[in-house]
Design a protein that fits this description.
The complex is a heterodimer of chains A (about 260) and B (about 325). Helices cover about 25% and strands about 30% of the residues of chain A. With about 260 residues, chain A is of the alpha/beta class. Chain A starts with a strand and ends in a 5-residue tail after the last helix. Helices cover about 25% and strands about 30% of the residues of chain B. Chain B has nine helices and 16 strands. The longest helix of chain B is centred in the C-terminal third of the chain and has 16 residues. The chains are: A alpha/beta (about 260), B alpha/beta (about 325). Bound molecules: flavin-adenine dinucleotide (FAD) and adenosine monophosphate. Flavin-adenine dinucleotide sits at the interface of chains B and A.
C-alpha cells in the first residue's frame, strides 16, 4: 500500500506581532518560528501508524523551498519512509490550486492507495488542497477525519460534519482523507531523532521532473494586499497596575452576574 | 442578470446569510440547491430565493459531499451559474474544493467579504487565525466558487415573492466510493456546560496539564464551570463535552471568561446569546479582544491567582 502525506511548514504567529512587509503582500518573517502545520502532524502520525500495522510505504511531500525541507525531515523522523521536496522557481506564487496540481503530479508513480492531508493550514486557513487533490486525481474525499481504520482496499473513517455531529463512512480506496486534530497523538520527535535522518537523501523535484508545463501552473487566486484587521468595536482594555486591572475585572464580572 | 447558486447542506441560518452575500453583488438571481428537503424547508427557501432545486438526498438521508458533488457537477456545467456559494463550515470542507476542481472553477475560501471587480470575483479573507487579512482576486474565468464565513453577512429577510421549487436530477451512473454507515452520538460527559450561566474557558495558553488546577480553582471561586478550546481536548486534558465551538458545544452563558484563548472563529462560533465576554491574553493582537467586552493584556500565570484572590476576598 502506498500512502502519500502532504505536509506544510507554517509559522507560529500566535504570540508575535504581525508586520506587513514593504511589498504589502507578505509578512516580515524575522521573528517567526516555524513548524509542521498542526493538522499535518496528525496526518503523518496516522500514516505511520498504518505503516506499522499494515506495512505500507509512506511518502511525505512538500511544495516549498529549501527552508521547508525541515518539515520533511521531521516527517522522516516520525517514521515516513521517504520524502520529496517539490521545488522550482516556476512554483513561486503557487496558490492552493497550483500546490494541489504539483502534489498530484508527484503522485503519478506509484499511484496512491491513500492520500492524507491536513484539514486546513494554520497560516492560510483555506482548507482546499485535499479537496482539490481529490478532484484532480478523481478520488473520493472525506474531510475532517477523527478516526481512520484501513483494511484491504477500504477504509472506515469517522469524520466531523456540520452541527457538532460525527459520521462513520466507508471509503473504497484509493481515496483522499483530510485529517482533523485529535485523530491520534502525534509522536514526539527529539533532536536526536532528527539527527538520525539527517543522512537520508530528500530528492528535489521540479516542474520538468514532474512533467509539468509551467504554463499550466498559473495561480487562480492572487493575493493583492495584506492589511491589519479593522480596529475598534473591540474590548475595553483595562489599564493601571495588575492589581487595579484585576479589581476592575472582578467589579465587571459581578455586575454582569459572573459571581454565582 | 447574474445567476448565483447557493448550496445549502442542511437547516440553519446558512441560506439566509448566503442569500445576503449573493445579493450584495448587485442584481442577481439566486438559486438554492438542497438535498432531500421536506416541503416546508423548500418553501422557506423559496421565500428567500428566486428558485429552489431539490436534489434527492444521498443514501442514508444525510449530507454527503461525494453525492452532492456528483449531483451538482453536471447541473453547474449545464446552467453555468456565475458563482457557486457555500457557508464555510464542515460540510463545505467536504464538498466545496472538490466541486471547484470538478467544475474547473477558481475558488475563494472562507471569505469575510466577496465582491466584483471588472466582472471578476474578489474577496477579503483572514489569515494567521485572524491576525491579518488578505484582499484576494480570482483570475478571469467563466464562473467562480466561494465559501463565506458564517456570520460575515447578516441574514437576508425573506422576500414576499415566492421562488419556484423544482426537482433536481439524481446523479447518473453514481457508484458510491464512499458510503454512509451511521452517525456517532456525542458523549454526554460529566457536566453539561450548555446549562451553565458562568463559564471559565481555558485555551492553549495554559501550557501544561498541571496548570489546569489554576483554572479549576478560579472557576470554583466564581461558581462557574470550566470550558475549553479544542486543543485542550485534543491533548486529552479535558473531556470533549467541555469543548466550546463549531465542533463542540454551543453555549449561552451570561458571562464567559476566556483565558489563554486566541479567539478563533471556530471557538467563538459556539458562543451564542451575546454573553458578557471577558478575556485574559498576553497578546494584545489576539483576535479574542476584537470580540470581547473587556480584556486584560497580561500573563495568565500572574493574573489568574490574583483574580481568584480578589474574588475570594470580595466574597469574604
Ligand atoms: C473544522 C474545524 C473545527 C474546529 N472546531 C473548534 C471548536 O469547536 N472549538 C475550538 O476551540 N477550536 C476549534 N477548532 C480549532 C481552532 O481553529 C483553533 O485552532 C483553536 O480554537 C485554538 O485554540 P486556543 O485558542 O486554545 O489556542 P491558540 O490559538 O494557540 O491560542 C493560545 C492563546 O493563548 C495566549 N497565551 C499564551 N500564553 C499565555 C499566557 N501565559 N498568558 C495569557 N495568554 C497566553 C496566546 O497569546 C494565544 O492567543 C476547529 C478547527 C477546525 C479547522
Ligand atoms: N505547500 C504545501 N505542500 C504540501 N502540502 C500542502 C501545502 N499546502 C497545503 N498542503 C496540504 O493541504 C492541507 C490544507 O491546506 P490549505 O488548503 O492551505 O488549508 C495542509 O494541511 C497540507 O496537508
Amino acid at each position: 500500500m502506498d500512502i502519500y502525506v502532504c505536509v506544510r511548514r507554517v509559522p507560529d504567529t500566535s504570540e508575535v506581532e504581525i508586520e506587513i512587509d514593504r511589498s504589502g503582500r507578505a509578512l516580515e518573517e524575522d521573528d517567526f518560528s516555524w513548524d509542521i502545520n498542526e493538522w499535518d502532524a496528525y496526518a503523518v502520525e496516522a500514516a505511520v501508524q498504518l505503516k506499522e500495522r499494515l506495512g505500507a510505504r509512506v511518502t511525505a511531500l512538500t511544495v516549498g523551498d529549501e527552508d521547508d525541507e525541515e518539515v520533511l525531515r521531521r516527517a522522516l523522523a516520525m517514521g515516513c519512509d521517504q520524502a520529496r521536496l517539490l521545488s522550482d522557481d516556476v512554483f513561486a506564487g503557487a496558490d492552493s490550486w497550483v500546490t494541489a496540481r504539483i502534489l498530484a503530479a508527484a503522485m503519478a508513480e506509484p499511484r496512491p492507495d491513500l492520500v492524507l492531508c491536513g484539514a486546513v493550514s494554520a497560516d492560510q486557513g483555506r482548507g482546499q488542497v485535499g479537496g482539490f487533490l481529490a478532484g484532480l486525481l478523481d478520488l473520493p474525499l472525506v474531510a475532517l477525519a477523527t478516526d481512520l481504520q484501513v483494511e484491504e482496499g477500504s477504509a472506515r473513517v469517522r469524520h466531523e460534519v456540520s452541527g457538532g455531529v460525527e459520521h462513520l463512512v466507508d471509503l473504497r480506496l484509493p481515496a483522499v482523507v483530510t485529517v482533523q486534530t485529535g485523530l491520534n497523538e502525534p509522536r514526539y520527535v527529539s533532536i536526536r531523532g532528527i539527527r538520525k535522518v539527517a543522512g537520508v537523501e530528500i530528492p528535489v523535484l521540479g516542474a520538468a521532473d514532474l512533467g509539468l508545463d509551467p504554463a499550466e501552473l498559473q495561480p487562480r487566486v492572487v493575493t493583492e494586499e495584506l492589511f491589519p484587521p479593522p480596529q475598534g468595536g473591540g474590548a475595553e482594555i483595562l489599564t493601571g497596575s495588575g492589581e487595579e486591572q484585576v479589581e476592575r475585572l472582578v467589579e465587571l464580572l459581578h455586575e454582569h452576574g459572573g459571581l454565582v | 442578470m447574474r445567476e448565483i447558486l447557493i448550496v445549502v447542506p442542511g437547516p440553519g441560518d446558512e441560506a439566509a446569510e448566503l442569500t445576503a452575500a449573493a445579493r450584495s453583488l448587485g442584481e442577481v438571481r439566486v438559486t438554492a440547491a438542497v438535498f432531500g428537503a421536506d416541503e416546508e424547508a423548500a418553501a422557506d427557501l423559496a421565500g428567500l430565493c428566486e428558485r429552489v432545486v431539490v436534489f434527492p438526498a444521498a443514501p442514508g438521508g444525510v449530507f454527503d459531499g461525494e453525492w452532492a458533488a456528483a449531483a451538482l457537477t453536471p447541473w453547474i456545467a449545464a446552467e453555468q451559474p456565475f458563482l457557486v456559494l457555500l457557508a464555510h463550515g464542515n460540510d463545505a470542507l467536504d464538498l466545496a474544493p472538490l466541486l471547484a476542481a470538478r467544475t474547473d472553477r477558481p475558488m475563494l475560501s472562507d471569505c469575510l467579504e466577496i465582491g466584483l471587480r471588472d466582472g471578476r470575483l474578489v474577496g477579503v479573507r483572514p489569515l494567521h487565525g485572524g491576525k491579518v487579512r488578505a484582499r484576494v482576486a480570482a483570475v478571469e474565468a467563466a464562473g467562480y466558487l466561494a465559501t463565506v464565513r458564517p456570520g460575515a453577512y447578516p441574514a437576508a429577510a425573506a422576500a414576499a415573492a415566492a421562488g419556484q421549487v423544482v426537482e433536481g436530477p439524481a446523479p447518473t451512473g453514481f457508484s458510491p466510493r464512499r458510503e454512509f454507515v451511521g452517525a456517532v452520538a456525542a458523549e454526554a460527559g460529566e457536566v453539561d456546560i450548555t446549562q451553565a450561566e458562568v463559564l471559565v474557558a481555558v485555551g492553549r495558553g495554559i501550557e501544561e496539564e498541571e496548570n489546569l488546577d489554576l483554572i479549576r480553582s478560579l472557576a470554583e471561586a466564581l461558581g462557574a464551570e470550566v470550558a475549553c478550546t479544542r486543543p485542550i481536548v485534543d491533548k486529552g486534558w479535558l473531556e470533549k463535552s467541555r469543548q466550546v465551538g463549531t465542533s463542540g458545544r454551543t453555549v449561552k452563558p451570561k458571562v464567559y471568561l476566556a483565558i489563554g484563548v486566541s479567539g478563533s472563529f471556530q471557538h467563538l462560533g459556539g458562543l451564542k446569546g451575546s454573553p458578557f465576554l471577558a478575556a485574559i491574553n498576553q497578546d494584545p493582537a489576539a483576535p479574542i479582544f476584537a470580540a470581547a467586552d473587556v480584556g486584560i493584556v497580561g500573563d495568565l500565570f500572574d493574573l489568574v491567582p490574583l483574580l481568584e484572590e480578589k474574588i475570594r476576598e470580595r466574597r469574604g
